[in-house]
Amino acid sequence: MSAADPQPIADSELDLLFAPLARFGRVLIAVSGGPDSSALAVLAARWRALRESGPRLFAATVDHRLRPSSTSEAEAAGRLCAALGIAHVILPWTAEKPSAGIQEAARAARYGLLAAHARVVGAEAVALAHTRDDQAETVLFRLARGSGLSGLAAMRTVSERDGIVLVRPLLGMPKARLVASLQARGLPFATDPSNFDVRFARPRLRALAPALAREGLGAERLAVLARRMARADAALEAATAAAQSALILDRWTQSGPLRFDRAGFSALPEEIALRLLERAISQVGAEGPVELAKLEALLARLQAADIPQGEVFRQTLAGAIVTARGGEVRVERAPDRRKTASDRA
Q1: What is the distance between the alpha carbons of residues 14 and 2, in angstroms, rounded to a whole number?
Q2: Rg of the chain (C-alpha set)
Q3: Alpha helices, DSSP H only, in the chain?
Q4: How many other CB atoms sit within 10 Å of the CB of residue 149?
Q5: Strand 258-261 to 328-333 pairing
Q6: What is the pTM of this model?
Q7: Distance CA 249, CA 4 (A)
Q8: Contact 187/80 with Cβ under 8 angstroms?
Q9: Which of 82, 98, 97 is nearest to 31 (CA)?
Q10: Percent of the chain having pLDDT more than 70?
Q11: How remote is the C-alpha of 209 from its chain's centroid?
Q12: Mean pLDDT of residues grouped by 10 in the chain (345 residues)?
């Protein structure tokens, strides 16, 4: 093996990689049977075997049943986990498959099934096998879709979804080293053909990776960008929390209405004002995430100089009504549109 060849991950690296898992009593490992998740299971089992104490490991494979070979691949993942001494189950996705947005739907189903099984086995965390290559793709994917700074921070090593902690121990590790770790042990792995299907956005971005790397936009550089964005995002979130505390006119409740000082709000830096407004709309609105471009347009209108102090500004966004009147900005839940239409009928 030459110095340029990717090196298998050494035992001496495992404690640092898996440190985010050490505080949990039980951890569920998501194993698809592909190289990344297979390496995650192998390395996690090795890490745990080298320690006197640590979490009890469980594993689960979500069988999306989108390809004829998916069930046999899930069974192979089960055999690998059995050889590692990790209890394993297959979680089938039995719901009707959508005709569009299949990858997004499959991803949502996967997280839901994993979270539900984590609760069944009492796992406080789910370990996912995302790598530095995945992080780079996520940055490009979100950049292409116009994400803001928070989106470009991409995936975090530790996050939360559906009330379960998600941990990505290998997020800083190149995929090639995971493959090398399996090859060094003589372990096979499955390859999902959808990873190369250019009908989907991520495989198209993956195909661009060599050309981007030649221009200095390789996975390592994009992962550094994500870390820096995450650092800036954390600072901006802290500044937004401080602004919320300073400008709130009464207790910030789940149901609203939420009111804050208009003059102080108008004096905020634009990014902080956007985030404060998004927090309020997300808190009381009933229509899901707030689209950034629409939020920016709302803020521009709200802060426009031609709105006289004595007049009322009102606009609805994402199931919330935003009103500027006198010295306050007020955000409250909008009436249910279906119910309102029914009342008119």
Answers
A1: 23
A2: 24
A3: 14-17, 35-49, 70-84, 102-121, 132-144, 149-152, 175-184, 201-214, 219-247, 262-266, 270-284, 292-302, 337-344
A4: 14
A5: antiparallel
A6: 0.86
A7: 61
A8: yes
A9: 82
A10: 94
A11: 21
A12: 76 97 98 95 98 96 90 95 98 88 89 96 98 95 91 95 94 96 93 74 86 93 96 97 94 82 94 96 88 94 74 91 91 76 48
Amino acid (one-letter) located at 266: S
Q: Distance between CA 55 and CA 86 in Å, rounded?
A: 12
The number of beta carbons lying within 10 Å of the beta carbon of residue 2 is 4
Question: Kindly report the CA angle at 225 between 200 and 110, in degrees rounded to 5?
Answer: 40
What residue has token string 């984590």?
118
Could you give the C-alpha distances from 109 to 100, 137, 151, 201, in angstroms and in order? 15, 21, 21, 19
The single-letter DSSP state of residue 319 is T
Contact indicator for 153, 13 with CB cutoff of 8 Å: no
Q: Find how far residue 159's CA is from the centre of its chain.
A: 7
Which pair of structure tokens corresponds to residue 176?
A: 């090639």
Do residues 249 and 257 lie in contact, with contact meaning Cβ atoms separated by under 8 Å?
Answer: no
Residue type, position 275, single letter: R
* C-alpha torsion sign, points 105, 167, 188, 182: positive
State the pLDDT at residue 344: 47
Per-residue pLDDT, 309: 65
By the 8 A CB rule, do 219 and 174 touch? yes
User: Apex CA 268: angle with CA 266 and CA 271, to 5°?
Assistant: 115
- Beta carbons of 309 and 282 less than 8 angstroms apart: no
| CA–CA separation, 310 and 145 (whole Å) | 39
Residue that the structure tokens 């990689």 belong to: 17
Q: Which amino acid is at 179?
A: V
126 forms beta bridges with 28, 166
